[in-house]
Design a protein that fits this description.
GO terms for molecular function: beta-mannosidase activity. Its EC number is 3.2.1.25. Keywords: Glycosidase, Hydrolase. Pfam families: Glyco_hydro_2, Glyco_hydro_2_N2. By secondary structure, the protein is mostly beta strands. It folds into 3 domains: 44 residues, no CATH class; 115 residues, Immunoglobulins (Immunoglobulin-like), CATH 2.60.40.10; 87 residues, D-tyrosyl-trna(Tyr) Deacylase, Chain: A, CATH 3.50.80. It contains 2 helices and 15 strands. It has a 4-stranded antiparallel sheet, with no helix packed on it. A 3-stranded antiparallel sheet has the order 3-4-7, with no helix packed on it. The protein is globular.
């Protein structure tokens, strides 16, 4: 018998504050107000800025694995993500289309053949369309396509309390198959059908309007500022996120700003926002510090 070789994966963690720039460590430049009792120069580390203290929370700089981790194995290619924009026919408001991209990762840089199928709920929109893809130098490839939605009665999505107050979501599924392999890769995203616009038109004596409309319906945006649900992110559960988002819905909120001093939240939070009719104003994670 062939002897099995053993492999070890070693992960080493450094104390976050040790990664600060030594040239800045002797200076108060880049430090927050002394009343915060925080740590200086967190802007030199790409970690949750508020974990080094902010006006609403203590300084708890963390380290370690706080999201799921694993090892993947595949021979051909896998779907990493699906991005989609829903668009409406200007001449026929009931006719929708998907402006969609399927983001793929290949195990090699050689071109390969694949067949793509796309489903909306159980309705097949594309059946095994053939593509030959040439990956980029990082192994990534992308399929972009515009798909008219036919044969499905679409209910438009609206924010909480706006117009019909419908938050109907549909399962959009992309599937990759390969003519020379039994391997299959799939990804599913729940989506709502909507158009979102920021309306800026001139007003007298000077200036511009600034308001949102969804599916052509103007609405009053009302909501709150989302900060990290816990300073220790590993304690945040799906149940707790649902409780918070449900409370926002029950308080008649329809928009929420994800503050740029925390983290890029989990996909699950944004799925809940879709479910409860809460639009997201997303900050980049560069707020409230000098980057």
């Amino acid at each position: 018998m062939r002897r099995k070789s053993s492999k070890a994966v070693k992960i080493r963690f450094a104390w976050p504050l040790s990664r600060r720039s030594p040239t800045l460590a002797v200076s108060r430049t880049g430090c927050m107000a002394k009343e915060y009792h925080g740590e200086c120069h967190n802007n030199m580390i790409r970690k949750m800025a508020s974990s080094f203290s902010w006006d609403w929370g203590p300084a708890f700089p963390t380290q370690g694995i706080w999201k799921p981790i694993g090892i993947e194995a595949y021979d051909k290619a896998i779907i990493r993500d699906i991005t989609v924009e829903t668009t409406r026919d200007k001449g026929n408001a009931s006719q929708w289309a998907l402006n969609m991209a399927v983001h793929i990762e290949s195990d090699s840089l050689q071109k390969f053949d694949t067949n793509l199928s796309v489903y909306l709920d159980d309705h097949e929109l594309i059946a095994g369309r053939a593509y030959t893809l040439t990956p980029a130098t990082d192994g990534s490839a992308r399929i972009k396509l515009i798909i008219p939605v036919t044969g499905v009665d679409i209910t438009a999505w609206y924010p909480n309390g706006v117009s019909q107050n419908t938050q109907k979501l549909y399962a959009l599924r992309a599937k990759l198959e390969f003519p020379d392999s039994k391997e299959v890769s799939e990804q599913t995203r729940r989506i709502g059908f909507r158009t979102i616009e920021v309306i800026q038109t001139p007003v007298q004596p000077k200036g511009l309007t600034f308001y949102f409309q969804v599916n052509g319906q103007p609405f009053f945006a009302k909501g709150t500022n989302w900060i990290p649900a816990d300073n220790l992110q590993e304690r945040v559960s799906k149940e707790y996120l649902r409780e918070l988002m449900e409370a926002a819905r029950d308080a008649n909120m329809n928009m929420m700003r994800v503050w740029g001093g925390g983290v890029y939240e989990s996909d699950y939070l944004y799925e809940l926002a879709d479910e409860y009719g809460v639009m997201i104003w997303q900050d980049f994670m560069f707020a409230c510090s000098l980057y």
